[in-house]
Structure formats: C-alpha cells, structure tokens
Amino acid sequence: MTVYAQVALLRPSRHLDRLYTYKLPFSDLKEVSIGAKVRFNFNNRLEEGFIFSLDEERNFSGEIKPILEVLPEELWLTPELVEMIKWISEYYLCSITEALTLISYPEKIYQDVEVFCTVVDEKKLNEKIKKSKRLQNDLSVINLLKNKRGVVRTTATIKKLIEQGMLQISEKPLPNLPSIELSESQKQVYQQIKRDMLKNFVGLLHGITGSGKTEIYLKLAGDFLNRGKQVLFLLPEIGITTQMVDRVKKYFPDNTLVFHSRLSAREKFTVWRQVKKGSPVLVLGTRSAAFLPLQNLGLIILDEEHELSYKQEETPKYHVREVVYWRAKRLGIPLLLGTATPSMETYAAVISGLIKYYYLGKRYQNRPYPQVMIVDMFKEAKEGNTGIISRILQHKIYERLQKGEQVFLFLNRRGFAPVIMCRKCGYFYRCPDCDVSMTYHKEERNFQCHYCGKKIAFTSKCPACQELSLDLYGYGTQRVEEELKKLFPAKIFRVDYDTMRSKNSYDKILEAIKNKEADIIIGTQMLAKGFDFPDLTLVGVLNADQSLNLPDFRAGERSFNLLTQVVGRAGRGIVPGEVIIQTFNPENYIIQAVQKGNFQQYALKELSLRKQTGYPPFSRIFRLIIAGEDEQQVVEGANILVNLLKNASKFSSEIEIIGPAAAPFYKLKRNFRYHILLKTNKSSFAREVLKAGLREFKKCSLNYKLTLVLDLSPQIF
Ligand code: ADP
Ligand code: ZN
After folding, report:
1. In this protein, which residues make up the domain named Helicase C-terminal (predicted)?
2. What residue owns the CA closest to ligand 1's atom 21?
3. Predicted confidence (pLDDT) per residue in 188-218, tens digit
4. Which ligand 1 atom lies nearest to the CA of residue 181?
C-alpha cells in the first residue's frame, strides 16, 4: 500500500501556491505524522517542507515522486500548528508558505541547549570544585551547587559533570503555588475567574493601572503549572522588560521561558524543544510566541489586549488576539484578556455577553487615582505664554523637584522641530520620497524623515525660492529638553527612539530612573506604558491633541488608551500622583474621560459613534493597498480592481466597497498609495469576493508594475 503526503514548501515557489503530492518511501504510517518535516525533489532542487495531510488514496494524476528523507521529530510541527497555519492562510488570505513564516521552527537541532539539572552527588561535586579554579568561576556550576538544581546550558563542562555522575538532566519539576498575598478585591476577582474558567471561557480582566492584574495572572498561572499544564502569557513587545521577567521568575524560577523575536536561533530552539515535550512551563512571550508548538497548553493570557503592536504589519498581517481566540477555542482552553483600556472590539463582546467581565477599580493598597488637571492652551496663549510648558505646569514641576520627587513629561514626537517651512514663499519641507513632513534633528544637525529614515543635511536655504529663509516650527523632545535645561537646574533624561537604540540601553535607563538618577524625564510612548517608578509623582502631557485629529476612526480610541497609560504612570508609590494635561480641546469627550479616569463614559460614547457610522466593531473592514512608482498606473489599476470587486460581489448590499482613494500617507518611499476598503458584516462572503476579484485582477494587470497589499484586520489607516 502506498501512502501519499501533501507537503507545504518552505520556500516560495514561482508556481502555484498549493500543496504538492509526494509518496512516502515506506508504507508504515507510524513513521510520520502530520507536521513531519521532509525533504524531496522539487523542480530538480532538493527542498524541505512540512506534511500537511496524509492519504492512502491517490488524488493527483501526474507523476508522483517519493519523499527522500524524513527529518528528526524535534524539527516537526505539531498537527495543531498545521491546522493553525491552514486557518491563518484562509482567514488572512495568504499562502501557506507565507503563513509558515510566522512559526520560528528550528532549521536544525542544536546540541548546546538549556536543560534542567539536579545535583545528584553533592559531595563529589564539592570536592571537584575545590580543586578547580575554572569550576569556581563557572557561574552555572556555582548556582547549581547553591540551589541543588536549576536551568543550565549543556556546555562541555556541564556535560562532563553529567557523565561523571555528579549532575543529572531531569524533567522540569511542577512549581510550587506562588505565595502571592492577594488583596481583598484581587482575591474576589481571582476566585470568580477560577470558577468561571471551568467552562468554555473567554474573560476580560479590566483593571485600572496599578490595580495588580499581573498578580492575578500569576496566581492563575500557578494553578495550571502546578497541575502540569503549560501557560502562554503574551505581552506587547515593549512589555518584556527585565523587570517583568524577574517578577515572573520570582514565582516560577525553574518553569519560566522567555520568547521573543530577538532571541538567537539556538535560544529559540531551546524553548521549542521544551514546549514540544510538554514540560510544565510558562512562556512569557511576544506575539510570535503564539505560534509555538505548546503540547500541553492549559491557559492563554493576553495582557494589554488593546495594544496595537499585537497586529503584525508585515504579510501575513495577522492580529494575535484573533489567533489566540482561535487557539483557545480549538483546544477548548480558557483565554484571559487583560487591560486598563479595553479595545472596542473586546468591550462590545463583553456587552453582548460573549466575553465575561471582571473589574478591578482600585489601585493596590488603595493608592488614589492621580488628580488630573486640564490646561487650556488657547487661554494660556491669550494670557501671554506661547511657550511649550504652561505656567501651572512649570510651577508644579518646581514644587515636585523641591520635594525630591520625579517628573515625567510626555510628548510623542522625537527630534527638535517637526515642521520646516519657508517664511518667504511658504514652501513646506517634505521628504522627497514620502508625503511626510521632515523633522529637524538638532543633535545631528539634519532633516529626517521619520517614515523612511532619509536624512538631509541642515540648510536654511529654501529649495523653492532659494532664499535663506527656512524656519522651524513646532516642537519635539529635543527642543523640550533644551527648554527644560534653561528653566530648571535638574538632572534631565530624554527617552525616545534616538536615545534608546539598543535593548540594553532601554533596561539601563529604566534602572537609572528607578535609582533616581533623573529628576525630569521627557519621553515618547516608549516610556508611557507599564512601568512602575514609585517616586514619580507628577506627569505632564505636553500636547494631548497630537493623536486626536488623525483621519482614522480609531484615533479617539488610541488617544484614550495612550493618555490613560500616561496618567497611570503618576503616583504609583506612596505619595499620590498628579497629572497636567495641556490641550487646545479641553471640552473633547476623550480628554474629559481621561481626566475622570472614566472608561465607561468614553466607551459608550465611542461605541455609539461607531455604530452610527457602521465602523468596527459593528462591521469588519478589509483593506487593499495598491502602490507603485507610476501614479497613473496606480490609479488605473485601482479603478480596474474596484470594478472587478464590485462585479464579484454582484453589487450585494452586504458589502460596501469604498474607493479607490488616496491612502493616508499617500506617498511613501517613492511609491504612490491608493486604497480600497470593503466594509461588511458577512466576512466570509467578503473573503470570497476578494479572492475572486484578485484572481481576475492578476489576469489583466500583467503590464502594470504595482504592489498589492491585503490587510484583513487593519488597525491603523
Ligand atoms: P497593573 O498591571 O494592573 O498596572 P501591577 O500588577 O503592575 O498593576 O501592580 C502594581 C504594583 O502593585 C506592582 O508594583 C505590584 O507589585 C504591586 N502589587 C499589586 N498587587 C499586589 C499584591 N497582591 N501583593 C504585593 N504587591 C502587589
Ligand atoms: Zn521618507
């Protein structure tokens, strides 16, 4: 009997995007399973791929070649991951090969990996160490001796000690239940969730900043680990700090694995191996960790569920919230979302009863929510102060510095001045490759495009009228830093993309702030979220309007979330916090709701606006971007495509096809960009329409040089 395998290629082929049929060189199905990694000939080249289905019947009429090699099992995907990839490719309309890029599968087996070791012969090990200077300096050996066990890399030294019978590799032990003392309100929420989790469960833990959501996650995680189950704990990229890792490792020292895209291939393999074995581990990871072969998964936690960085902006453009939903449903396990500012998608699902809701409205130890004061910058200007920092904020900064407390000033704009304009002819300095204004950077003395990174040496000569009359307008963090230095004799830190090039400096700066090496910190959103600086008592939002008026239906939601996070940085220690929000829109509903810390007031208003306009979460929007260097071609192509889509939809009222229109950021990196939106409540129908329209488009657009990008879960427009 012959067994046929359908395999997915790892490398994109010029041919059709599909699975290819091969036959197994043996008839015993036990030797492979779905997910197995294999080698075969494809177009006269040796290629690798994963088996996506196995069949005893031949369903392909051409010549069928044999699979040449089955690679070791540690390199295989699990059948669940195979299903996940198929779902991704259907849900986000990408190829299987593209979907496979989401998985950090290992290319090879690494020998030198981390294992869990126990000391079996302490006496002998002690003697050995006494005699060897080298062992005395080996940190992992010293740690093992101290703790009698631990996670170590299998270096040559460790291997030798294992061979000589002093150490032993063992299975990970079940961790102890963490000894977290929950507050009364935390305890209530914890017990409620624990009870509800027994049944089909998606929950939202809505807790204000500083309420102690993490303590609840860890307590729940402990319950699962202790029963030998795995826990996936996802954080946004920026959330995986040394602080957070230490906090989790404190409770689960032997059972915590950290996973993110900056790990080396060997480090990734270490995690891959252990989760695939089914060891009871908690994986603390960023969105890529959602694609690990977790063989014994019991609970998924998605912290900061509203975060935009959970959406991948490269193809396949998936949203990890949607992926973990699928995974939890597929496995029948609980999914817990958490945030201080729920996304409208999640909150609407709470209102309609699809998601269970838990609220923590008090900060830990009843620390008060900060006092928030709004400063009307129009009034300020009328009264004679046109500077960046209002008089009241100056006064408050002064007060806090006197007391030895810390101040955080938030401005989400790096560089010195964001607008460069000619005062003679009105010429507006844009990036030559993008439709984006350039920013003056004083330290580097150049103009920079924050989109493509282009740099142009500083000049005051206007390219249009040739006069020496270019002027700088507006302000970024560099200018604020300069102003502050004039006003206050204080230690000032600037934290933005320019001062934070490496991961290392990021952790260092957080430590330095904690150690009070800074009095005033001026920072962008890099510093707005999640951090805990107990002596930080005053927060100033320099320009609250910045993100309010963008042409995007989620602009309000993003502003509310960001401002709430910023406010949440104040007063996390013993001294109550205070916040000053500078704005030209003091009556705006978002600013007002941020002031009161009233999520509900904002959310109900936001949802009713969305409902009126039929935007998500009351519909789904699919977006197609058509881009190219020749604008004429882009417009023609986009018009052809829109007509094909309308035909494919048979002009059904279930789909609203909008556009083509110039996209926001209409020119980027020399490419002109137009977009088409499909707004619908019938997303499976809309997917069919998209597929059909694109298929037709491919046939008739061969002569155009266009790129087409598909986004089925667009978050930013
Ligand atoms: P959130 O994630 O909700 O903003 P955190 O979990 O970071 O809040 O908690 C805020 C601070 O309060 C942290 O420093 C945390 O260690 C402390 N905290 C919260 N709950 C407890 C608890 N039960 N026991 C000890 N410390 C706690
Ligand atoms: Zn540019």
Report:
1. 433-610
2. 212
3. 999 999 999 988 799 999 999 889 999 999 9
4. 23
| Residue 452 in marked binding region | yes
Q: Residue 504: which pLDDT band, with cuts at 50, 70 and 90? A: low
Provide the residue count of the chain.
717
Q: Which ligand is nearest to the CA of 534?
A: 1
Which atom, in ligand 1's list, is nearest to the CA of 214?
A: 6
Contacts of 580 (CB under 8 A, 6+ apart): 372, 373, 375, 390, 392, 393, 396, 538, 539, 540, 541
C-alpha 418 to ligand 2 mean position (Å): 14
Fold (CATH) for 4-102: GIY-YIG endonuclease (3.40.1440)
Q: Give the mean pLDDT of 343-355.
A: 97
532 CA: nearest ligand 1 atom: 14
Average pLDDT over every residue of 262-289? 95
Q: Is 323 helix (H, G, I), strand (E, B) or coil?
A: helix
Share of the chain above pLDDT 70, in %: 99
CB under 6 Å to ligand 1: residues? 180-183, 186, 207, 209-215, 364, 532
Residues 93, 82: Cα–Cα separation, whole Å: 16
Nearest ligand for residue 207 CA:
1
Give residue 446 CA to ligand 2 midpoint distance, Å. 14
Say what the pTM is: 0.93
- Nearest listed ligand to the Cα of residue 436: 2
CATH class of 371-415+475-610: alpha beta
364 C-alpha to center of ligand 1: Å? 6
pLDDT at 431: 95
In this prediction the ipTM stands at 0.96
Structure tokens, 309:
């960085």
Q: What is the assigned CATH class of domain 620-712?
A: alpha beta
Here the contacts of 498-506 (C-beta below 8 Å, separation 24 or greater) are 498/414, 498/415, 498/441, 498/443, 500/526, 503/262, 506/241
| Alpha-carbon span 87 to 394, nearest angstrom | 55
Say which CATH topology domain 184-360 has.
Rossmann fold (3.40.50)
Q: Counting Cβ atoms within 10 Å, is residue 551 exposed (0-12), middle (13-18) or buried (19+)?
A: exposed
> What is the Cα–Cα distance from 515 to 247, expressed in whole angstroms?
18
If one residue of 186, 364, 369, 564 were mutated to test the ligand 1 pocket, choosing by the most ligand atoms within 8 A of its CB, it would be 364
- How far does CA 322 lie from the centroid of its chain? 13
| Amino acid 502: pLDDT | 67
State pLDDT tens for residues 577-606: 999 999 999 999 999 999 999 999 999 999
Mutate to test the pocket of ligand 1, among 185, 214, 220, 247 (most ligand atoms within 8 A of CB): 214
Average pLDDT for residues 655-666, to the nearest whole number? 94
Q: How far is the CA of 438 from the centre of ligand 2 (A)?
A: 8
CA of 412 to the centre of ligand 2 (A): 19
Residue having the nearest C-alpha atom to atom 15 of ligand 1? 212
Which ligand 1 atom is the nearest neighbour of the CA of 568? 4
Beta bridge partners of 257: 283
Distance 682 CA to ligand 1 centre (A): 42
pLDDT 10s digits, 61-108: 888 999 999 999 999 999 999 999 999 999 999 999 999 999 999 999
Angle 113-118-120 (CA atoms, 0-180°, nearest 5)? 130
- In the three-class reduction of DSSP (H, G, I as helix; E, B as strand; rest coil), residue 582 is classed as strand
- Among 215, 301, 303, 363, name the best residue to mutate to test ligand 1's pocket (greatest count of ligand atoms within 8 A of Cβ): 215
Q: Is 553 helix (H, G, I), strand (E, B) or coil?
A: coil
369 — pLDDT class (breaks 50, 70, 90): confident
465 is in an annotated binding site: yes
**DSSP per-residue codes, 376-444:** EHHHHHHTT--SSS-HHHHHHHHHHHHTT-EEEEE----SSBSEEEETTT--B-B-SSSSSB-EEETTT
Confidence band of 12 (pLDDT split at 50, 70, 90): confident
Which single residue is written with the structure tokens 């003697």? 127
